[in-house]
Design brief:
2 copies of one chain form a homodimer.
Chain A lengths: L1 H7 L7 E6 L4 E6 L5 E7 L9 H15 L5 E4 L14 E2 L4 H5 L3 E4 L5 E4 L3 E4 L5 E4 L2 H8 L4 E6 L4 E7 L2 E8 L1 H11 L13 H10 L6 H4 L1 H8 L8 H21 L4 E4 L3 H13 L3 E4 L4 H11 L4
Parallel strand pairs in A: 1-4, 4-7, 5-8, 10-13, 13-14
Antiparallel strand pairs in A: 1-2, 2-3, 6-7, 8-9, 10-11, 11-12
């Protein structure tokens, strides 16, 4: 009893401090040895808005660091990029938790505490094109299981991934979120748009458009004529554009990954719901990943750390 | 001799004043009865930068208007849009010079001179999607001939057009130019780019990428990794992106128009050369349209004007 209590209580070695630190957000987790989240910190302190990473980390996690002097500390995401705290070389695919954990980059904080950075993944296609991710690999590890899984992690740079028995075989990035933002804000399409509330009918019309002849650059013009001919109210044009973009992403990914009958959607609730809606329109069944995928992945990687 | 001289000389009725007035440019032509350009005015006075259209027209063309009191005056382009001088309803396709000339909108300038605006064209696909053009119809009329022609008029909003015996059957807009500008300037892709000099090898690699699996939103990411992994120098990334965009436009248009063996490219010399290069890479033969397509079209429409 006493031994068990010691190993999970304060000053024990079975806690883990995990940080998912991206370009625009900071999410830290204090976890027990089974990966259950005991405490968390979330802030808008993404790497683009932070100058002193060490101070920022101490500010959010210093208390945990002091309370659990033997807890491993693991950081994933863009914090390991050239613009981050320590640049971590990419780990080439195929890769699973073993390969990733074997390539952690160690570093000491200004207070002398050892921390480890998770590498991002790279993949080179047969045609010689490179693809990369940083941070998503940890979420993928967190939700991967037995057998073949096709996953999408929607976002500014959506990632589609093929995972077999927990190993990431290959993946493809789609610039959907950035494309949507740039087209909405910086082209003629945005001029007729008012608001961005979700209109399911316009969104589905956009997805349907993506299946017609002509391709994305042509389908985009429907947002213009849809407004010009008042076929859609101005407040629905954003959903129409979103449907066209996500429809093209899914169709492109389907080409890429061949027969994926069932797609695991891993991401925030709103965007995950949108993708599930789009996948259903295109006849693909979906499953939604558990929350805190990154925390689960950090815990799985920590299990494999050699101290 | 005297009669001929009178009909083509000053104060005769056989001259024509034609204006191709778009969003960012103003091009005016004084032509003889055979459509030959006798004089011209070009200025950056597009409709977006002009407040008083009447004064701008008089400023550039007032001398011609005075010198040729019986010359018809014809204006085409965005000057006939809601944001222009007089809004002209679209003429539905199929339409040739006859239909377009029958739908001119007349107007009197502040000095009481009659002018006529050329309507843009609209087309509705079988799926119910609308497409529109304003200004390009006049260029198309200017270069159309006998038989079937597939044309591209490259630009911010590229137009692909199927013309049979001088009648425009259908067309499709591709937002290629605006897309390229928005992605270069307002996404992460632009951060690694330096300059925009043409690199034919990177441009062709972009066109080749457009044929691979995954679609445009995925292929875009190659501009990022191409820079990240130093596969292309920073100054070539703009050409890579341009090749990806134009490659997707051409592939989309080919789907749309089926078997076009030979494409007529109508536009400015630099962009026309780029499109000819891309079409050749994709195995399509090309022909370059004559210069001053708009002037030729205005002359052809003027021939059909009823006074």
């Amino acid at each position: 009893m006493t031994a068990v209590k010691q190993s999970t209580g304060p000053r024990g070695s079975k806690q883990l401090i995990g940080v998912d630190w991206g370009t625009t957000s900071f999410r830290a987790y204090l976890m027990d040895e089974r990966g259950r989240v005991l405490d968390r910190r979330e802030a808008a302190d993404g790497i683009l808005s932070v100058e002193d990473f060490d101070a920022c980390f101490e500010n959010h996690c210093g208390l945990w660091v002091d309370s659990y002097p033997r807890a491993p500390i693991l950081l994933s995401g863009m914090i390991g990029s050239r613009q981050g705290w320590v640049e971590v070389p990419y780990c080439p695919c195929p890769a699973g938790a073993e390969e990733i954990a074997a390539r952690l980059t160690r570093h000491a904080t200004s207070r002398g505490r050892q921390i480890a950075f998770v590498p991002g993944l790279s993949w080179r296609s047969t045609s010689g094109a490179d693809d990369v991710m940083r941070g998503e690999e940890t979420q993928i590890i967190g939700v991967s299981g037995a057998g073949r899984q096709v996953m999408v992690l929607p976002g500014s740079h959506s990632k589609w991934v093929e995972v077999v028995d927990g190993r990431i075989l290959r993946f493809a990035t789609f610039l959907t979120g950035e494309f949507f933002a740039a087209m909405s804000k910086h082209t003629i399409l945005g001029r007729l748009m008012t608001g961005d509330a979700h209109d399911a009918r316009a969104f589905e019309a956009g997805i349907a458009a993506s299946a017609e002849a002509g391709g994305l650059l042509h389908h985009l013009f429907r947002v213009r004529t849809g407004g010009l001919f008042s076929r859609w109210p101005a407040e629905s044009l954003s959903s129409l554009l979103s449907g066209i973009a996500i429809g093209h992403e899914i169709r492109g990914a389907r080409d890429f990954f061949g027969g994926a009958e069932r797609v695991l959607v891993v991401g925030g609730a709103t965007l995950a719901a949108r993708y599930a809606e789009a996948l259903a329109v295109l006849g693909l069944s979906t499953e939604t990943g558990p929350p805190d995928a990154a925390a689960r992945g950090l815990a799985r990687l920590a299990e494999r750390m050699t101290s």
